[in-house]
Amino acid sequence: MPRDVSLALRGVDKAKDHIKERGGFLMGNRKIFQSQLLDLGFSKDNSYIIAKQAKRSNNHQISEAFQNSLKVAGDEIYWYRIPPDCQRLKVDVEAQCAKHLSTVRIHLFERGRLNKLLLQAGKPLIRKYLEKVYGDNVSELHCYFRLETVHQYYKLKFFEHHGCQIPSVSELIKVSRKQFQSVLLEGYKTFLKKKRIEIPSSLYKTIAAHKSLTEWEDAYTTPEEKILLRFWFLIDHGVTINQKIVNAGVLNPGADLWAFVKGQGDECNS
Fold this sequence. Notes:
The chain is mostly helical. It folds into 3 domains: about 5-120, no CATH class; about 125-175, no CATH class; about 175-270, no CATH class. It is about 65% helix and about 0% strand. It has helices at about 5-20, 30-40, 45-55, 60-75, 75-80, 85-100, 105-110, 115-120, 125-135, 145, 150-160, 170-175, 175-195, 200-210, 225-235, 245, 255-260. The termini are far apart.
């Protein structure tokens, strides 16, 4: 076939594809990528928008950012209390993919957007717990914005799980992270002694060295706190804490805690 005829036919094919895409039907590699996004759980509208706008060479960055975000939610569920199948999280991350396309990984992980999304998704859980402890009208307090943080949530969890008297709202807020660090360390030692649990030094060092991709840890985060966070999560889902749990590797960074508890209780189903 003469080259000029070949080029003309190719132009006709491209024109036809362009008309179909304007009508909402993607073709070729765009269609394949759209199908991949749909399989990941993206909505029909967003999968079309993303597949149409994204460059082919960047497709994997978008799908990987989405999958990694859900994996982080699973890996860090003992902190955020948001399961990887949380519909709100999926919708929020999907919206970020549609907004930022190839740069979505930078926004989610390097600029802290995923951390913010997970914290926002956990607000209803924190409010529910605060209302349980302090009453239904707790959200009307002028200092509520200081109370509804994840750090205050876990301070209360400490007092709940370690048999201490629940402090008043003002007393709780006054306890700084620095002050809480020493209180938590004593609680950790007492808890292990009471449960007759021994944490292997190798596990302790592994937990101490592990840093989350969302970088939620602050200057006062200790391995003891990370271990207790995991124990509290398990307790809240009906798991009996003993040495067998430790030996099973459930406390290891990256362990699938959500699969282990098999969705017991409703704490993480917000």
